[in-house]
Amino acid sequence: MVKKTFVLNIQGNEVLLINNEPHNLPFSQIFEIHTSVILESASERFNCWDGDIQSFQNPFEFTIQTDMAITANVYPVPDWQTEIHVDREVDNTDVMQHTSVFLGVASQAYTQNADDLPDHYSCDIVLNDQSFNALKKDIQKDCFNEYQWRISVDPHGNEGNPYVQTTAIISWDVSTLSSEGNYIFKNSAGEILISDMRLTPKYEVTGTSYSSFTIRWNQHETFDIHLTQG
Prior knowledge:
Order of helices and strands: EEEEEEEEEEEEEEEEEEE
Number of helices: 0
Number of strands: 19
Shape: elongated
Number of domains: 2
Helix content: under 10%
Oligomer: single chain
Largest sheet: 11 strands, mixed
Strand content: over 45%
C-alpha cells in the first residue's frame, strides 16, 4: 500500500532547523503522512509561525496530515542595537560571571523576557518595562525623538558575603550606538553619571543588590539658543 504524501512549504528569509537539520528559506519538501516535523528558528529576531500553523512556540512540533504552507515571521532588523554587558570576576569558574541585555530602535517594537538566573551568579543585569517586568531585550519603535531604557544592575549576585559590597563593571561597544543624537546615563535619582556614552564606554556599579539606572537617547541633539537685543 502506497502511503499518502503531502507538501510542506515554508516561507521566510532566515535559516531554519527542520528536524535538527539547517535549511535556507524558502523551503519545500514532500513528507509521508503522519511524519513528525520539528521547526526551530535560530534567529534572535524570531516572532511567530503563521499560515496553516499559528504559534509563538519555538521550537514547534507537529504531524504532517495535509499539504501545509507556513511562514516563519521575524521582527525587523533594528536601525541600531547595542549590548550592555555586566561583569564581575570571581575565582569559581562554575559561577556565571557576566551577562548582558540588548536595547535599540526598529520600525517595530519588540521585547524578549529575561532568562532565569542560574544557581550561582556573581552579577546580573535586566531591562525593565513600564510594569517592571524583567527583559533581556527591549527594541523600541522608531517614532519619537527621545527614548528611555530602564536597567537594573546587581553587582553582587549570590556569591560571597551578602553584606559586603562588591563592584561590577557595565560596558558597551560605542560603535554599535547610533551616530545621531546623544546618549546619557543616569541613576535612579535622575543624576547624570555619564553625559556622553560614546566617550565613556563603561561604568562601575558597587553594592549588595540591584540598583536602577536610565539610558536616555535624544535622536536629535538639542541646543540652547540665547538671543540678545541689539
